[in-house]
Amino acid sequence: MSTDAPSTPTEPDTPSSRVRERARRRGESLRSSDRRSVLRPGDGPMVILDGVSKEYTSDARGLDDVTLSIESGEFVFLVGPSGSGKSTFIRLLIKEFEPTAGSITVGGRNLQRLRRSKVPYLRRSIGCVFQDYKLLAGRTVYENVAYALQVIGENPRSTRRKVPEILALVGLSDKSDRYPNELSGGEQQRVSIARAFVNHPRLLIADEPTGNLDPETSIGIMQLLYRINRTGTTVIMATHDREMVDKMQMRVIALENGKVVRDQRQASYARADS
Amino acid sequence: MRVRFFFAEALRSIRANAAVSVAATVTVLIAVFILGAFIPSFLYVQSTVDSQKNRLDIRAYISDSATVSQVNGLKTQLDALQANGQVASYTYVSADEGLEELRGRLQDPSILDELPSNPLPAKFTVIPSDPEQSDQIVASLQDSPAIDEELGIDYGEETADKLLTVARFIQWAGLGLISILLVASILLIGNTIRLSIFARRREVEVMKLVGATNWFIRWPFVIEGIVCGLIGAALAVGLLWAVKITVVDTWIQGADSALTRDEATAIAFPLLGLMLIASGAIVGALGSGITLRRFLKV
Fold first, then answer.
1. Mutate to test the interface with B, among A147, A181, A192, A205 (most CBs of B within 10 A)
2. How far apart are the C-alpha atoms of A12 and A206, rounded to whole Å?
C-alpha cells in the first residue's frame, strides 16, 4: 500500500497535528482509512464549500450560496430547523447528488471532478451515521460492522481482530451476535457508529444521530462521537438537540432556508446575544 | 478469497430470503419444463413431416406407343436434372414390375388375376431433391413425346401441396411458440427476481452508503441468480427425464405405428438437458444482474 499516512517531521504544531500525533502514539492505524482512499493526505481543510447551491426544483431550495471551510480535526455542529438544509449539506458531502452551483472539496478532492466510479472510495473514507441507523437487518451486530471492512477488502484475519475492538469501544461487546431489531435505539446507533468508525475515516458525518433517542441515551452517543473526534477525526454533526449543543460548546454552523446565518466557535445553539 | 466471500454472501441471502428464492427457483422450473417438453415435441413433429416430404415422388407415365429413342430422350433429360441436383434419383418401372408392385400393395392380390391383360403403363419414378421444386421438374419433363398424353405426369399435387403447407405451418408456428415461451419465461423469471431485489433495495442502499462498489454488491446477486437458475433447471430436467422414461418411451415402444418406423428423431436427451440447464443459469445470472442495475443508482 503506497498511500501511507503522511510522515510529518516538519509539521507545524497545529491542534490537528497534535491529535494525529497522539493517535499515532497510541498505535491507532490512521493508515487503513487511506486504503484506496480518494482523499489526499494532509492537514489542510477537510471540507471546503465555495458558493454551493442546491435546488431540487425551481422553488425547492436545499442550499443557497453556502461558503465555508472546516479544518481537519474539528468538531462542528450543523444546526437549524427542519428543512433548513442540514441533510442537503450532508448528502452533498458523500456525493449522493451534485450541487446546482459552486464547488465542494473534501479532503483535498474536488467532488465535481470525482468520477462516478470513484464515489464508493469517497464513501469509504467518510464514516456516516444516520438518524435511522441504516443497519443491515438480516445481519448481526458483528456482521454489520464487519461488512464495512469486507467492502474495502480487509483480510478476514484483521477483520476478526478489528471488529471486537471497535465493539468494545462502543460498549457492545456482549451483543455482537444480536440482530438490530433485538437492540434498543441507542444500541443500534452505537453499532452504526462502530461501523462508521471501524476503518478509521478522517471524516465522520452524523445526520441527527440522536434524533430518535431519549436525552440520556443521547449523551452516551455524544460522548462516543466526541471521543472519536479526539483521535483526530473531523466530525460534522447535524442536530437540533439544543441542550446538547449548548453543553458541548463547539463550533456551530446555523442554517436557515439554505443559508448560513451564523458560524461561531465555542458557541451555543441559539445566538449568544439573543 | 473474494470469490469465497461472494459465494458466502449469495448463500446467506438465499437462506435469508428463502421464500423468494423458492419462488424464483419454481418459476425457472416451470418455464424450463414447458420449454423442455415443447422443444423435442416440435422437433419430432417437424422431422416426421420432413420424412414424409421425402416420400413425395413424381411418376412419369410412358405412352405405350413411345419409341425406344423417345424413352431414351426422357432418360437423358432425367440424367441432366440429376446432374444439376434437382433430382435425387429415378428408376424405370416396366409395366410388369408395376403390376408386381401393385400386387404387393393389395390386400387381396387375386383380383388382379382376373384382368385379361396388364393395364398399367411403364413409368419413371422420380424422387426430387427438394419436394418444393417438383413443379419445375414436372414442367421440364412435360413436353417429352415419350409421356403418355392421358396419364401425363402425376406427382400428387394436392397431397404434396397440403403436406408442404402443413410442414411450413408447423415450422413457423413452432418457432413462434418457442420464441413466445422463451420471452415469457425470461419475463417471468425477471419479474420474480425484481420482486426479490425490490424487497432488499434498502439493503442495497445501505451497502452503497458504506462504500461498496456496484460489482461488490452485484456479484452475490448474480451468483444467487445462477444458483436458483441451476437448481430450477436441474429439477425440471430431472422431471422431464422421469416423464420421458415412464410415459414417452413406453408409448413409443408400445405403438407399432408409422411414428416409430420413421426416421423421425427429436433431439438427444442429454444434449437437451445440458442446454436447458445452461440456459437456466444464464437467465438467472442476467435476470438478477440487469434488474439490480436500477437499484444501484444511489
1. A147
2. 29
